Amino acid sequence: MNTATPSPVKMLLPRATCTSQRICCVSGFQVDACRSSSLSKNLVVAAKDSIGWCGTSSVYSKQPLNRFLLPTGALVTSKSQDIPVPPLVGDEKIGVLLLNLGGPETLEDVQPFLFNLFADPDIIRLPRLFRFLQKPLAQFISVVRAPKSKEGYASIGGGSPLRQITDAQAEELRKSLWGKQVPAKVYVGMRYWHPFTEEAIEQIKRDGITKLVVLPLYPQFSISTSGSSLRLLESIFREDEYLVNMQHTVIPSWYQREGYIKAMSNLIEQELKKFDNPEKVVIFFSAHGVPLAYVEEAGDPYKAEMEECVDLIMEELEKRRITNAYSLAYQSRVGPVEWLKPYTDETIIELGKKGVKNLLAVPISFVSEHIETLEEIDVEYKELALKSGIENWGRVPALGCEPTFISDLADAVIESLPYVGAMAVSNLEARQSLVPLGSVEELLAVYDSKRRELPPPVTVWEWGWTRSAETWNGRAAMLAVLVLLVLEVTTGEGFLHQWGILPLFH
């Protein structure tokens, strides 16, 4: 695989014109679909072109943008005056399930949280031959990483604030929906810590919800985040007769929505004003990374959606006469495999070498404060920036309960319900009414449905301290760990048994 960094030249491809029509079933209704270069208010469904801008550069100047590069899935809008409003009381019980990663609330939670994380095959994908080692390997990694992780969580108060923030978002979303005449209940389901998705589903059943909108709190779709949660939901739905018969809709990504773009732009504009010379500040978008093979081999749309999202925000800022240079990089990589580039730490160093003195960090893939923003960005990357010659550092806060953001999430939920647009607030046509929809099964059929084996990230063997060599050295170390684990499991003896780790899986 060629891993060379492309030239930092942004390329925009023209939108495809409509060449065919198809029928797409959304929430039990059939709607006409086509791929179009324009978005009129009568457009019902559009499919995604997998295009965006190219380059993994450090700094870009703002260029004209194709405004609507749509995400995979159905984008739904409609004329509310043509559709009768169904009753929202009585037998109809609407629920919204917010999905998020979760985080340890105390230092004692760190190791079991890490185990849940690494036991997920969408986070660490082992070859079929070694899949029986998923949990032993997760236990080993979580025990090894826990001390370092505890230091990080201790530095931000002894635990992640993610649950408290997500609970607050759920409450504000509920209030917004009721204010828009949609009396829905909102639930929180975390993937790797309490309240687990399974716990939220049980409460949904107890409350007798008949229509469920599944809303991952990840603006951009990734196999390792929204995709992992959808697979879990699929397994839960298949095993429960109540859930099989419950109508549901999933909003897999919403990074392109007008309310989200404006909310992010508002926060960036506010933080820029805190600098002495706002026009000289480089806007530095830092997104959570994913392994490169997820994108290049498994079809993960995350990179394309992230790049388009940044362009949409910069276009909105340009309307406000903010034309700062900007950059996009990826943080939080783990392990020896190659992740999406450019890396945040390397880009910060590069910007310092180029003479950048003012940097505003934007945690673009995070809607809540947690370890990646409070410790990794605010502490580690800030320190690195100051050492690299950057004199003035700022950071845009995560969206949290920002009113424009919450209101737009409520609109997204409303638009995703059957009879799209009929239950929305007035002045529908003044809003961007675009929501990608689909059932859990339909979306998994689009995103990485075959769960293909991930290829090696590097195909050249090297020794020494080059990046390729480090990757192979790490791979050799991992192979040695796997061999030791196989011996432990097959013989029932070894240091992991002596430490009391593996007997958990007898």
Rg over alpha carbons:
23 Å
Distance between the termini: 40 Å
Main sheet record: 4 strands, parallel
Count of distinct strands: 12
Mean pLDDT value: 76
CATH architecture of the largest domain: 3-Layer(aba) Sandwich
Give helix and strand order, one letter per element, not per position.
EEEEHHHEHEHHEHEHHEHEHEHEHHH
Widest sheet: strand ordering = 5-4-6-7
What is the CATH T-level topology of the largest domain?
Answer: Rossmann fold
Overall spatial form: globular
Number of individual domains: 3
Strand content: 5-15%
Roughly how much helix do the residues carry, as a percent range? 25-40%
The class by helix and strand makeup works out as: alpha/beta
Low-confidence stretches: 1-90, 419-436, 454-472
Number of helices: 15
- CATH top level of the largest domain? Alpha Beta
Catalytic activity: heme b + 2 H(+) = protoporphyrin IX + Fe(2+)
Function: Catalyzes the ferrous insertion into protoporphyrin IX.
Keywords: Chloroplast, Heme biosynthesis, Iron, Lyase, Plastid, Porphyrin biosynthesis
Pathway: Porphyrin-containing compound metabolism; protoheme biosynthesis; protoheme from protoporphyrin-IX: step 1/1
